[in-house]
Design a protein that fits this description.
two-stranded antiparallel ribbon; metal-binding; alpha/beta; 5-formyltetrahydrofolate cyclo-ligase; ATP binding; 23% strand; binds the ligand Nc1nc2c(c(=O)[nH]1)N(C=O)[C@@H](CNc1ccc(C(=O)N[C@@H](CCC(=O)O)C(=O)O)cc1)CN2; Rossmann fold; binds adenosine-5'-triphosphate; 12 strands; NagB/RpiA_transferase-like; 24% helix; globular
Amino acid sequence: MTKAELRQKYKEMRLQLSPGELERLSETIVEMTLTHFQLSEKTISIFLPIERQRELNTYLLWERAMGVGATVAIPKTNFETFEMRHYLFESTDQLEINQKGIPEPKKGKVIAADKFDIVFVPLLAADVKGNRVGYGKGFYDRFLRKCAPNCLFVGLHYFDLEQNIDDVLPTDIRLNAVVMPSQVIRFD
Ligand SMILES: Nc1nc2c(c(=O)[nH]1)N(C=O)[C@@H](CNc1ccc(C(=O)N[C@@H](CCC(=O)O)C(=O)O)cc1)CN2
Ligand SMILES: Nc1ncnc2c1ncn2[C@@H]1O[C@H](COP(=O)(O)OP(=O)(O)OP(=O)(O)O)[C@@H](O)[C@H]1O
């Protein structure tokens, strides 16, 4: 299927999930992440959930990562340049919800892209090769190419993998791993 078809399919699948199921799946994905990835002493990027898109509750991951001594940063989007800049995330007092419904930092210490050990990546769909589909603006494709060569790109996903995405672009950056409620898959 094409990215456009997959966006529609997975948005509908999210709408089938009740608030209770979304919370339970979020908890499971966070537990799977903590089991499979060493976060202590690491510098990590986490996205915060767009609630109207029913994204997973990554506040749980932030709390757990802080608990094991990770340095956590969150992105702020610029919808004119489609670039993101990261800020150290220390308190929910830093946040405001932007027009797209994304909780974003209004202040904080800037963290450069090449400082990250792990970037957790939002997605609507992913395939068995590690290709992903987002909302289609290329924010993560532009950001991930600035990260260090040994940085891990880890998708967080409610559902199973697709066999193929038909219209992968040369600028698309593949994931190294994806965490799903039932399993963690590494692509390399
Ligand atoms: N939590 C989170 N943060 C993220 C992303 C994400 O997927 N999740 N992004 C991943 O790249 C970037 C934001 N990407 C976005 C791109 C387009 C729209 C947008 O046009 N929203 C429309 C509804 C579109 C739709 O339903 O498809 C709107 O709010 O009106 C929102 C976010 C960066 N931050
Ligand atoms: N490094 C880049 N420089 C310029 N344009 C880019 C770059 N990376 C991606 N793009 C463009 O951004 C768009 C990304 O579309 P795509 O459908 O892959 O988005 P997506 O991966 O779903 O979105 P997101 O990364 O925001 O979740 C494409 O038009 C692509 O050409």
